[in-house]
C-alpha cells in the first residue's frame, strides 16, 4: 500500500512538472520578450490604426490567436490570388489561390503577431491585395541569402 501511495505521488509530481514546463514553453514562444529582438528596419506601427492580416496557417486556429494575442477575435474567410501555400510559406504561382482568413488587429496585437512569426528573422510582413481587392498584411518566410 505504501508503494502505491509513493507511485501516485510520483505520478502527480511528474504531471505537475510537465504542466509547468508546457506553460513555460508556451509563454516563451508566444508572449515572452526573450529570444526575439526585432530588427531596426521594420515598418512603423501606428498606435491608432486597425490592421487587416491575412493568415493561412496556424493563425487560422482561434486557440493559437488567443495564445498569441490574448484573444481569438473574429475572422473572415478570404483568398490570396497568385500565391500557393507551400508548407509554412506562400510562394508565387500563376493561377494559384491560397485560402485563408483575414483578422483585424490593433497595434499591440500586430506586435504580438510579429513576435510570434519572428518578424525579420524567420518571416517578413508584406502588404498584398486579396482576391476582393482589399489590402492586407501577410507573413511569409524570409528567403535565405545566397
Any chance you could write out the topology, listing elements then pairs?
Elements: H1 2-30, E1 51-55, H2 62-69, E2 75-86, E3 89-105, H3 107-116, E4 123-129, E5 135-141
Parallel strand pairs: 1-5
Antiparallel strand pairs: 1-3, 2-3, 4-5
List keywords for this structure.
5 strands; five-stranded mixed β-sheet; alpha+beta; Hypothetical upf0131 protein ytfp; 146 residues
CATH class of one domain: Alpha Beta
Helical fraction? 25-40%
Strand content: 25-35%
Name the helix and strand elements from N-terminus to C-terminus, one letter apiece.
Answer: HEHEEHEE
Oligomeric state, counting identical vs distinct chains = single chain
Provide the spatial order of strands within the biggest beta sheet.
2-3-1-5-4
The CATH architecture of one domain can be named as Roll
Q: Mind summarizing the main beta sheet?
A: 5 strands, mixed
CATH superfamily of one domain: Gamma-glutamyl cyclotransferase-like
Amino acid at each position: 500500500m505504501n508503494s502505491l501511495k509513493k507511485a501516485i505521488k510520483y505520478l502527480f509530481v511528474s504531471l505537475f512538472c510537465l504542466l509547468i514546463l508546457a506553460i513555460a514553453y508556451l509563454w516563451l514562444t508566444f508572449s515572452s520578450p526573450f529570444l526575439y529582438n526585432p530588427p531596426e528596419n521594420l515598418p512603423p506601427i501606428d498606435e491608432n490604426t486597425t490592421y487587416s492580416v491575412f493568415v493561412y496557417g496556424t493563425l487560422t486556429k482561434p486557440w493559437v490567436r488567443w495564445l498569441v494575442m490574448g484573444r481569438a477575435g473574429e475572422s473572415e474567410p478570404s483568398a490570396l490570388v497568385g500565391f500557393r501555400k507551400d508548407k509554412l510559406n506562400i510562394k508565387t504561382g500563376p493561377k494559384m489561390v491560397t485560402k485563408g482568413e483575414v483578422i483585424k488587429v490593433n497595434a499591440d496585437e500586430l506586435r504580438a503577431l510579429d513576435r510570434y512569426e519572428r518578424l525579420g528573422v524567420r518571416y517578413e510582413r508584406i502588404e498584398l491585395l486579396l482576391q476582393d481587392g482589399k489590402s492586407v498584411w501577410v507573413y511569409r518566410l524570409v528567403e535565405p541569402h545566397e
